[in-house]
Amino acid sequence: MKSAINKLFQLRKALDECERELGLNNLSEVEKAVASFVSSNCCTTITAIKNHPYFAKYSLSTIKRAVLSLQHQGIISSEQSSTDRREMNLEFMH
Q1: What is the pTM of this model?
Q2: Is residue 11 in a domain?
Q3: How open is the CA angle 49-50-55, to the nearest 5 degrees?
Q4: Overall domain count for the chain
């Protein structure tokens, strides 16, 4: 058990270091999660974020607020989908 906890702490330290290097350390946890998801999934949408099991603990409005905040900070951008005009594709810009 102690070994697993030690590994968890080492992972947390590494994650904190990466977030600091990328300039994401000042974001909320949900903003960090959304930014990470968008950066690892090309042309994703708010719907795709909400439907991912990791984000089940967050409400749709919380995810939307995080996306708007990240857009305002210039970390992600959005562009209207060419196939479905109702959807906005999100892209990591950082």
Answers
A1: 0.87
A2: no
A3: 85
A4: 1
